[in-house]
Amino acid sequence: MKRADMKDKAALAFFVWLCLLPAALAQEPQPLDQLLARLGLADLRLHHLERSLESAGGEQQAAIARNLADAYAEQLLAAADDPPRFEELKTRVDRLLAAHAAAQTPSLQVILLQADYQRAEALMIGWLDNPADAAPLAAARELLGRIAPVLATQQKELAAQAETLLDKLESLKTERQRVEAEQRAGRLQASASRAAYFAGWSNYYLGVAQQDPPAAAPQFALAKEMFLGLLDVVDDKEYELVEAESLALESLWRARAAIGLGLTELALDRTPAAANIFSWLDHPSAATEIRDQAGYWHVQGLLNVKQYALAAEQAEASIATFSGAPSAGKNSLCISLIRAAAALPSEQTELRRKLVEPGIRGLARLRQFDTLASLFTKYNLDGVADPGSFYLAWLRGRQQFLAAEKSKSPDEYRAAANTLQKALALPQAKTELTDAAQCRYYWAWCQYRLGEFEVAAAAFLEAVTALKTGLPELAVQSAWMQCVCRQQLAAKDKRQIGPAMTAMQRLIADFPGTEQASKAEFALTQLRQASATPQEAIASLSAIGPGDANYLAAQYELCQLRHAQWSKVKTDAARAQPLATELLRSVDRFLAAAAKSSDRERKLRASLLAIDVLLEPAQPETTRVAAYLRGAAAAAAAVDPASLPAAEFHYRRLQIAQKTKDEGEAQDAADWIVAHASGSPYELPALVVAARAADRAAQQATAAERQEKVAAAAAIYTRLVELLGDSPEKLAGTKNALAASSRLALYDEALGNWQQAAIRLGRLVAAVPSDKGYLRRAGVAYFQVADFPASLECWRKLLGGVPPGSDDWLEAKYYQLACLLQTDRPAADQVWKQFQLLYPDVKSATWRDKFVALGKEFTR
């Protein structure tokens, strides 16, 4: 810390001390450091104790030193994740300990020993990473042998101090004394728990470092005792009865204590008990990173005490469940096996192989090929792994393929394909289907690079099925590569266009929303355009039978092609009718074949193609349309509401409801589109229906409801005006746009949104300059927003078009005068005098009082 900062803190501490002193003296006797602690002023408390220590002597000095040491311990604990703060406090602690032996309190020692433990743990991890290097193990053994007993002793002392303090609570006279005693006991218990945690791990690692599990049993037993206490587990005979949820494993400290307990039980040769403990860590309440690491620690614990055969067996069980993305825990489990195998003597061939094989399999399954290759090189494992291992052959074939990708040599691609083919022929490839599918994926790439597109397409397709569940991101890439292969074939042979379309439709159905699905949709459009005739594509797709895996995709593509044919001639009834009939048959075949499929979007799209055809005639077949709508309802409810097919489904509902005069159904469909399909082609007709309903609701509203209903109507009309347009040119040429803007302006007026009303009415006047209604409303709106020149212009035009003396004329004259008063007082006076000469007594009941009030403005 900088000297200036220290001076500033000292000054601040002294100032606060002066401020607090009267309060401290006015209350019952209480040391100032306790007051500062109660107020949470940690830095000021430390500074106060440091100053007090300087001036104290004898027993008082020792007591203050102990108090300061415990205060430092609390702050070091709080600064564990703040290295600069921790180091600054550590420097002050070192000075304290050098000057005052009494400051060696248990709480402080625990915190300081934590740093020693962390060094020892780092040494143990270094040794585990390279068991051949004995130096880190020896250093860790020496360090742990020193700190483990001290930590255990400190834990007992701290726990005893806390217990003594709690026993004295009843004898304390005041509530404040009891609260402070409870807080002090709580801090001691926290320090005791921390000491127990590090004592547990120190004794466990000390036992491992001895490399003789039977001789290390006392260290393991002591570690177990510490971990049991931390977890509040009383009976070590019935772990299976412990409710994991009761252990609060969401705390990383408690979860790691559970890991430590499991490791000590393994070290004490209580394997079933350890299995129960590690099962706690699979509970959802445990932190995600702990759940991920549980399998690794279970295996590593067995390796630590040389239970290699059991470790291999446990690893096999864990790796069999691997799926999805790699993680630190999964990778570490596999790496620990390979590392342990490398450390065993070379003559233990079978045991080394038992460890290496699951490690290789796990990393390959996780697609951690670079890590695997690096480990093989680092530990020279070529002679350890089974030469007939599917995974080893797969790894070599992949390495050959990557080398070929750099050289682009056909010979190297052939060599890689040959190695991968041999791997696929091995027995393991017949049982490990997901792993074999990854191997086949690389083999398919070799075939693709060699120009064997038909063979590659079949291999990519075969790989997709097995990859879907375990590795969906690789499955979609394999599906896309099948499409690429089919595209290459279709470019040379138009008979291949149908199979290529089918492959793309299948990808779109199996992997909706992916980047590859978007690419497939674009490629599908290109293929349709490239097809010499739709008839050729239809013939090719029709040849795919129900037993073919591509049958469903082919039937869907037939629906698309037949709809495209019909769309081109739909205005010619004679030519359109037979095409419509074929389309409806294709749709029915597809829907029947897809009955058990989860591909809801294509079911919906196919139904919409049929509905489009059936609604085309002037007298549509409403019964058949309704049947398709009912059949597609479940699919429409399941797809993304923001998707275009979902919006079209409800638009078709709206259409048929309007044709059958079902107002309730029409309103429901329109409301859905308004809520979910903004920006779609179906928004406008739905808004028209919604606007009519909003008008009715506003007209029928009670006085209490009116403001809300008018605001709702204005919101609907705002969207409608945005779609129809409201420029003067658009308003002049489109009656619907004119009507919508006029109605929206009315709602703005009703809501008091005069600025917006003035803008809208100005556009309406520009579009229809002679309309007296728009002129009058614009004049009022401009007046409300104090745009008096614009308002005056409207009223002047109206004065020349209405009978003098009528209420309409009087209204225009009133606003003309009111505007002139604001813009041109001399002209206003002149017009007022003329008006008084002509109309000395206004007869209109509506305007008489208003002109009287206006006249008063002219006399000021």
Describe this structure in words.
This protein has 860 residues and is an all-alpha fold. Helix content is 78%, strand content 0%. It has 41 helices and no strands. Helix 13 (308-319) packs parallel to helix 15. The radius of gyration is 42 Å and the shape is flat. The chain starts with a helix and ends with a helix. Mean pLDDT is 85; it is low at 1-30.
Rounded Rg: 42 Å
The end-to-end distance, rounded to whole angstroms, is: 76 Å
How confident is the prediction overall: mean pLDDT?
85
Largest sheet: none
Low-confidence spans: 1-30
Q: Count the E strands.
A: 0
Helix content: over 70%
Class computed from helices, strands and strand pairing? mainly alpha
What is the approximate shape?
Answer: flat
* H/I helix tally: 41
Strand content: under 5%
Short description:
Helices cover 78% and strands 0% of the residues.
Write the layout of secondary structure elements.
Layout: H1 3-26, H2 32-38, H3 42-55, H4 58-78, H5 83-99, H6 106-129, H7 135-167, H8 175-209, H9 217-231, H10 252-267, H11 271-280, H12 288-304, H13 308-319, H14 328-343, H15 349-365, H16 369-379, H17 390-407, H18 410-425, H19 428-431, H20 433-449, H21 453-470, H22 472-492, H23 497-510, H24 515-530, H25 534-542, H26 551-569, H27 573-593, H28 600-614, H29 622-638, H30 644-659, H31 663-676, H32 683-700, H33 703-724, H34 728-733, H35 735-751, H36 754-767, H37 772-784, H38 788-799, H39 807-823, H40 825-838, H41 848-858
